[in-house]
Amino acid sequence: xxxxxxxxxxxxxxxxxxxxxxxTQPGRTDLESIIAEVAADSAAINFAEFRRIVCISQxxxxxxxxxxxxxxxxxxxxxxxxxxxxxxxxxxxxxxxxEEAKATYMxxxxxxxxxxxxxxxELLNRQQMEAESVEMAHDREQAYFFGVWDKRMSEFExxxxxxxxxxxxxxxxxxxxxxATACVGxxxxxxxxxxxxxARESQRTPKLSRDLLNLRRIERALVKQKDYNEAxxxxxxxxxxxxxxxxxxxxxxxxxxxxxxxxxxxxxxxEYEALAKRIQRSRDEALRQRDHEYKRMLQRYNNVKIxxxxxxxxxxxxxxxxxxxxxxxxxxxxxxxx
Length: 338
Fold this sequence. Notes:
Layout lengths: L9 H11 L7 H11 L8 H12 L2 E4 L2 E4 H4 L3 H18 L2 H85 L5 H17 L5 H15 L3 H106 L5
Helix pairs in contact: 2-3, 3-5, 5-6, 6-9, 7-9, 8-9
């Protein structure tokens, strides 16, 4: 805008120039009110009055979406408005309007402090979002980790129980088959079958005593001599001895069967315990692997947190240092007035 041009004429001309400056257009009522307050004659607004109108209009507070902010902020022209204010300050100094220059400069300092504060707030908000994002990612990773391991351990327990069940079935079948073959068990019928089995075993492999064999030999000799009376007496005595020895052999056979059953059961228990121990070793190894992987996951998470925290501190220091440097340069160029 050429300050040496003709005077600005009324609302329409001011509104047109605001658009030319690419600033946010105020409402008609607000702009007309500012023109009436600043300009001595709204039909003949000079350049200084126009600058004042622009500064006041762009600095008006507006409520938008529940937020109270300046018109320049609402229109997204804050940076351009600061440049316009700074030009206004320089021109006020050149024109000797130091009171207006002071007020403009104070407002510039306030806006720049707000910018610094806003930059810090935006940085903190962004850093907080990044930290929360890391936490959420860790929670998802942890949930997935435990989900995978819970499924893996569940499948392991199912497989282990299936293996133990099959071994129990095998042992039951083995013992049932042996008992059926050897007639070992409970109940009257089984007892009779045990005795029969033992008797058969004793008949197959008789182990009669020498005394009984000697009695039978004498019995046969008496028969040859036709001494039937003595042979009858001797046979009666030998039968008693033989019955007693066969009963002893049958009892020994039953005891042998019970020992064999006990040996089978002991061997089966050892096999079952060995399988249970192998399963427990595998379970312990899986749990150790799970703990190891979980510790590695936690270590990665802690490393990310430490790295992110260090990066955030570095960013914060850089933002603060830049703000302090900018304020120092501004203060050196334009010291704050008393």
